Amino acid sequence: NVSPSQRDEVIQWLAKLKYQFNLYPETFALASSLLDRFLATVKAHPKYLSCIAISCFFLAAKTVEEDERIPVLKVLARDSFCGCSSSEILRMERIILDKLNWDLHTATPLDFLHIFHAIAVSTRPQLLFSLPSLSPSQHLAFLTKQLLHCMACSQLLQFKGSMLALAMVSLEMEKLIPDWLPLTIELLQKAQMDSSQLIHCRELVAHHLSTLQSSLPLNSVYVYRPLKHTLVTCDRGVFRLHPSSVPGPDFSKDNSKPEVPVRGPAAFCHHLPAANGCKYASAKRKVEEMEVDDFYDGIKRLYNEENASESVGSVCGTDLSRQEGQASPCPPLQPVSVM
């Protein structure tokens, strides 16, 4: 039979496929649920595990994703390196459907996370006061990443998806608000779950997330160094960067600290429409406050949040020589995201 470690390994593989094919987190959650349900009904040989997993992944994509986002089967079989052909995936897909009685619309832990988080935010508006830089959807995106990580732990399979989601929300509320316990009890009563199981689930989830935090690399150190370039004009309204004769500020190396490479583009080129010989044009750049990838894009609709606004910086009517060495095209520093 498939061992717990083999199951966890293939779930982690599906998580990588979700990023590779840019699919919704709901697709990964449903694929994991289908895989666990199928393995609970049959005794599968480990050599068929990759074929079973990729078939569940394909079924979940066809159930959750829009038609234009569903991966082509041949491309999925080739780029996933699953080791099976398209026809083998289709045959395994039919076996899975028969064993599950064609019932694919089951609630996943992610569905319960959405429900519990919405109740917590609506009943406790002060929940995110300590996190002013996060909107409710961004906070839910952060919890979603943690939940998907926990779904790859076979030790947590003993709990229902609702219990796992409530334990995740309860641990997060404990960090943010002092009256987290009454709200946890209220959610526990609404879900009609056992409090002793919730306590045990909280302990395992907290331990699993602590191992995730300890495995992360140390925060990267960035050194600010303005580029030593000047902006000049070319034909057809094209701006290019060339080396500048004016040296920019530099930093001395501290031998007591490890050397950190400075990251930044060496040169760039913006193609702008020409305007009657004018040497200046406006440039637009989209600025995001937090890197939240597809989780935030797929979740923010739940809270009717508008898209992040774009900030426009104009260089028309200014002296380009005075801009030299005063601004850097480097993007703002982003916090380290948890996978």
From TrEMBL:
Domain Cyclin-like: 12-98
Gene3D superfamilies noted in UniProt: Cyclin-like
Region (Disordered): 315-339
Pro residues compositional bias, start-end: 329-339
Keyword Glycoprotein appears in the UniProt entry: no
Keywords from the UniProt entry: Cyclin
Pfam families registered for this protein in UniProt: Cyclin_N (PF00134)
Family indicated by similarity: Belongs to the cyclin family.
Function: May play a role in growth regulation. Is associated with G2/M phase arrest in response to DNA damage. May be an intermediate by which p53 mediates its role as an inhibitor of cellular proliferation.
Protein name per Swiss-Prot or TrEMBL: Cyclin-G1
Organism this protein belongs to: Muntiacus muntjak
